[in-house]
Amino acid sequence: EAVSEEGEEESNGVNLMEFSDEILLHILSYVPCTDLVLNVRRTCRKLATLCLDKSLTHTVLLQKDYKVNKDKVKQLMRDIGKEIYQLNMAGCYWLPSSTIDHVTRCKNLVKLNLSGCHVTSLRLSKMLSTLQHLRSLAIDVNPGFDASQLSSECKATLSRVSELKQTLYTPSYGVVPCCTSLEKLLLYFEILDRSREGFMLSGQLMVGESNVPHYQNLRIFYARLAPGYVNQEVVRLYLAVLSDRTPENLHAFLISAPGSFAETGATKNLLDSMARNVRLDALQLPKAWINGSGLLQHLKFNNPFYFSFSRCTLSGGHLIQRVINGGKDLKSLTSLNLSGCVHCLAPESLFRKAEDDIDSSILESLVVSCSNLRHLNLSAAHHHSSESIGNHLCQLLSRLKHLLSLALPVCSITDVAVSVEKPPTTPNLVPQTFGRKVRIGIQTYPRNLGDQANQKIESSVFWALMGSLRFLETLEIIGSSFSSAMPRNEPAIRNSLPPCVRAQSVGDSEVAAISQLTYLQSLTLAQLPNILTGSGLVNIGLQCQHLRTLSLANLGMMGKVVYMSALMDMLKHCKCLRDLRLEQPYFCAGSQFFQALSHCSSLQRLCIVSRSGTLQSDAVMSFMANCLEVIMCHMFMGESLTVCKNLQQSIVRSFQAERPALNVVIFPLLHEDLTEVIRDVPMRHLDEITLFKSRVAEEPPNLWW
């Protein structure tokens, strides 16, 4: 009887193997390649054939397969090595350098990404000597790299490479002089000014490395500099050749440099040559190269798709006249970064204060001309709308129906009537010091989304904006004066600047408005002063079921985490959440918090930054035991060095064997050795989650695969 019931259920159900090959291949494309080859294909004959289909083995992505180990890579290369044409192992920091030896089985490789992997000069030489079809390469250049160890066969392969991404941790040309056919060159400068022993480093290259790079075929040049003068010295050596002869086919020239990066005679000659000889599609320059110069007036553009004027003093008048050609059609532009460009929405900057109202006509010209924008960054500036009806920044941005990512300052989303006519009363102002706590009255907020919608939809311009950008995937709302407590190469910041006066009314109802973004995948909220309960976070957890990345910093009162209860309720609904970053003074990472966080079954990376924050070691250990996918745990709190070290060692001892990619850093936030600890964090985690920054339009879209 039981058998007959089983047979009846089977006949009425759907058998996966009855689907067409096309449908099955589409389903299998979502399964990691290591699982397909090493597990799934062993289940039955049909899947054994499908799992080796060229559409599934042509491109192998291991860059976030945190469960892969050396043995799995070895078996994978042995089984399908000859079928792999594109291999991405970026950020596989946990794999031993000997793993790279197995890549030699992939004789037909065309694209290879080894950024973040441990590769010596000799291993690189041996591997590249066998990859005669390679055309795209990404590697790291670490201390000890010696180009003289590269064999003639290796150099022959490099001479055919047309795309190179090189991350430099030591002053070097790397393999650039060997790549005589370069069309795309991406350089990431991560050189520290001091060695581990405390010696100052020099940016001068060794005499043996003074080979001249070959840029004659270059189409894309991109350089991103970490803070430090050595990085600036080295990038100037790379640019020296460009200043002598600018490639005729150059169409993208991008340099991202923090702080001050002065223009020299050589760089001025380079820019003058570019103005005469090339037409660009993408441009980003250090602020000192643009500020006060007439460069933009002379540069020519073809069909630009990316502009970044981050931290420049470019005025809105210059932006419209010199970049957008007086408001002409610029539908080719898909990504625009105006982060920290404080005067970009004002007609001129000479006598203007950063807090003055914007000129809505400039923003309107921008929106009309660049109607196909998909990525827009207006953060780190005071963009205050005037009282003119229909000209609020949020109302104008709502016309950009193709936006996928957006970054705005907190003060730009507030209703003018609220911020101007009804400023917050004194009891509701947020204390700006970390000292004596001040008791404040708690306002009553509607608890469910329907009540909030009825209350806000007619009056709130931000609610209307969120309703019009239904396909937005990334949203950042960051206070214009916010700075993280944990900068890159400096001691932790102990004091923060107060939020903008216009931002004082932004709180729970604005956060609730974000819950309209059904397809939201990444959310950053920083320095929202009027968060009183955090009720809007619960709405986001319920409605934004695709949320994968969440970053919250300095919400509400600075002396107390007022949104803790709402955050814990929110986390219970975030089944797809993979990355969580929290930065808040006095944060208590206790058992209740970690119990709520344990509901995030997909969580992989956790970072908590909290001045005077506390943690419960037992709760952390229990969380790590329950959440099997977590491979990164970074906590920078107020606990003692002994407590932090003991907990870190316990986590590593208990879970490292089962999780090869596990990276744990637990350390006092205000300890003098924090910068030394930070330098050992894998670049993937440091760049993507541990350090706070705006990531919208940070780079051109699809810069690398």
UniProtKB/TrEMBL annotation:
Which GO biological process entries does UniProt record here? SCF-dependent proteasomal ubiquitin-dependent protein catabolic process
Q: Which GO CC annotations does the UniProt entry carry?
A: SCF ubiquitin ligase complex
By its UniProt entry, which InterPro entries does this protein fall under? Answer: F-box-like_dom_sf (IPR036047), F-box_dom (IPR001810), FBXL18_F-box (IPR047948), FBXL18_LRR (IPR045627), LRR_dom_sf (IPR032675)
Q: Which CDD domains match?
A: F-box_FBXL18 (cd22128)
Pfam families the record matches: F-box-like, LRR_FBXL18
Q: Which positions fall inside the F-box domain?
A: 13-60
- Gene3D superfamilies of this UniProt entry? 1.20.1280.50, Ribonuclease Inhibitor
Protein's UniProt name = FXL18 protein
User: Which organism encodes this protein?
Assistant: Cnemophilus loriae
